[in-house]
Every structure is written in structure tokens, then in C-alpha cells.
Specification:
The protein is an alpha+beta fold. It contains three helices and ten strands, in the order E-E-E-H-E-H-E-E-E-E-E-E-H. This is VCBS repeat-containing protein.
Length: 141
């Protein structure tokens, strides 16, 4: 990630310690660096912060951050949840379900597999589900 022209590296250990939905990036000062507080003055996170090749836990690209927050000690990437945009909204498999994400068809994309007691398993293509939800959202606008 690039912040104010400086390359920051994801610190996996610090990110894990920071908790869910937080990424901690660090910058190592190099010999001869001339750094001032103004170098890290982030007025506009959209233009002052560049996120490249950020992926989720499954390795899928995350194209934009919902919110990037700079605290005194770390930069946090926060993904918006619970806003009604849940791609799995409306999937009801009853009691005792055990949903799992797995690449069922070997195409490299995760599929959602859900089932319930005394019923067959359902496999849902994540990409197809997301496309259907996006199309539905466009039609409702």
C-alpha cells in the first residue's frame, strides 16, 4: 500500500492482534529518509491512499475499501457489513445447518454449500449469486 508516496507493508501479526476487520500496515524508515509529520497528512483517503492487490481471506480481490481510518498508531481498513447488502440474505436452510465455502466444481472460485437435516445439499455459485443480487439492486433503483 502506498500512503503519501511511502510504501507500507501489511503486518500480519499486528493485524491479527488488532482484531477482526482491521489491517495494520508498517513503514520501515530507511537510512537517509527525511520524514516529517506532513508526509503522512491524509486529507483525502481516496486520493492520498492507494490500495493495490488487497485480497480477502479467500484470496479474492477487494477493489475498494468501505472506509479507511488513520488512527494515531495505525491505519485500519474497515469493510461495511450489516447494511442490508448481505449476499446470503433470504437463504434459509432451517435448523442444524452447516454452511461451508468450498471450490466444488474446481473452477478456482468458492461455492457456498448449505444443507439441513433430512434434506439434500444445495450448492450456490458465489459469483452467480452476487451477479443476481447486483442485477436485482439495479432493477430496484
Amino acid at each position: 500500500m502506498v500512503i503519501a508516496g511511502k510504501d507500507f507493508v501489511l503486518d500480519k501479526t499486528a493485524s491479527t492482534t488488532a482484531g477482526d476487520k482491521k489491517l495494520v500496515f508498517k513503514y520501515s524508515v530507511q537510512a537517509g529518509d527525511s520524514i516529517a509529520a506532513t508526509d503522512f497528512d491524509i486529507d483525502n483517503p481516496t486520493s492520498d491512499i492507494t490500495l493495490n492487490n488487497i485480497t480477502d481471506v479467500a484470496g479474492n480481490p477487494v477493489f475498494t475499501a468501505d472506509r479507511v481510518v488513520l488512527t494515531k498508531t495505525k491505519l485500519e481498513y474497515i469493510e461495511k457489513t450489516g447494511s442490508g447488502n448481505n449476499p446470503f440474505e433470504g437463504i434459509d436452510v432451517g435448523s442444524y445447518s452447516t454452511p461451508i465455502l468450498a471450490d466444488i466444481d474446481g473452477d478456482g472460485d468458492l461455492d457456498l454449500v448449505v444443507g439441513k437435516d433430512m434434506a439434500p445439499l444445495n450448492t450456490i455459485k458465489i459469483q452467480a449469486l452476487l451477479l443476481a443480487l447486483l442485477m436485482k439492486q439495479k432493477l430496484e433503483q
